[in-house]
Amino acid sequence: MSTDSAVSTEARDAAYDLAVVLADTEFISAHRYSEWGMLGAPSIEEDIALSSVIQDELGHGRAAYKAAADLGETSVDDLLYERSVDEWRSPTVLDSQLDNWAEIVASLAVLDYATVLVYENLQNSSVDELSGIAEKVLQEESQHIQHGHVWLGVFADESEGEYPKEELQAALDSFVPQVAQWLGRNDGNDVLLEAGVFERSNEQMREEFLSDISSLLESHGYDVPDVDLEWDEWDDQSRRPSPPESTFEETVDEVTGRQHRYLAG
User: Fold this and answer.
1) What is the DSSP code (8-state) at residue 111?
2) What pLDDT does 215 receive?
3) 162 phi and psi angles, rounded to 5 deg
4) Which helix (H) or strand (E) holds 203?
5) Angle at the Cα of 126 (from 124 to 132), degrees rounded to 5?
6) Phi, psi of 137 (to 5 degrees)
7) Where in this protein does the record put region Disordered (predicted)?
8) Are 221 and 158 in contact (CB under 8 A)?
9) Among 2, 64, 153, 196, which has the highest number of CB atoms less than 10 A from its own CB?
10) Residue range 26-56, pLDDT digits in tens
11) Where in the chain are the domains?
12) Using an 8 Å Cβ cutoff, are 109 and 152 in contact?
């Protein structure tokens, strides 16, 4: 695959930044889900379903790392093993372990939906490295979202005492605002838009995200969380207000296995 020769160096750099964000998001998502798989899922059937989600996320992450490596003229190994903890670009909502099954559901229903909106805007991208991975990701992520929607209904069912609705409401109160911000400042992807790398603005994506999520939550009787966006410390490259804390290094070590790689020489 090759990038349109008309794409500027600035746009190619911005496409690289986006590819790294997507790769880290998918890779860390898989890790957060794996911390529950085969241990904390509500049933064997759910263990199996979550294992499938984890495999999908790892595959998406690997594809996005390959795209980033090609765009940045680096290697997947360097992206995985050589970056310091403050260079990782996964969403703030994944900086720590997901505390309960409700947070898994919120991630599937909310974060995966936002990811789909981003990939939808890359299907006709002028950067082949990104458009080439969009179709497969969209097919699989859509299944993750539907799975999350089913569980929204389970938690909303008052007869299901095992799954308290207020637990999922708390998870949604955390995920919705952070993911809405993860979609970026309104003018934060102007370079991508002008170069045809992206089809819609961050503002348009966020409006669709908030409209659809609000309708979904209201249909199940959940409160729609307030979204108060602050951009003072925001970094467009990483789509974060600040780098991950140093404690995130343990997560990076676990998800990459890099400490074992170094021991192996």
Assistant:
1) I
2) 98
3) -70, -25
4) helix 202-219
5) 60
6) -60, -45
7) 234-256
8) no
9) 64
10) 999 999 999 876 557 788 888 889 999 999 9
11) 9-263
12) yes
The structure tokens listed for 134 are 């969009």
Nearest-5° Cα angle at 122, 117 to 124:
130
Give the predicted TM-score (pTM) of the model. 0.94
Q: How far apart are CA 116 and CA 134, in angstroms?
A: 9
Give the residue from 149, 210, 213 showing the smallest Cα distance to 181: 210
Burial bucket for residue 223 (CB in 10 Å: 0-12, 13-18, 19+): exposed
The CA distance from 207 to 129, in Å, is 27
Q: Which residue type does 176 have?
A: V
Task: Give the torsion sign (CA, 113, 212, 187, 94).
Answer: negative
Q: Is residue 256 a contact partner of residue 189, using CB atoms and an 8 Å limit?
A: no
Tokens at 17, concatenated = 């930044």
Token pair listed for 234: 């925001």
> Exposure of 186 by Cβ count < 10 A (0-12 exposed, 13-18 middle, 19+ buried)?
middle
- CA-to-CA separations, 243 to 13, 36, 83, 239, 252, in angstroms, rounded: 19, 25, 12, 10, 13
Tens digits of residue pLDDT in 178-204: 999 999 999 999 999 999 999 999 999
Give me the sign of the Cα torsion angle 21, 98, 38, 80. positive
Helix (H, G, I), strand (E, B) or coil at 235: strand
Look-up of token digits 């192996």 = 264
Question: How many Å is the Cα radius of gyration of the chain?
Answer: 18
The number of beta carbons lying within 10 Å of the beta carbon of residue 226 is 8
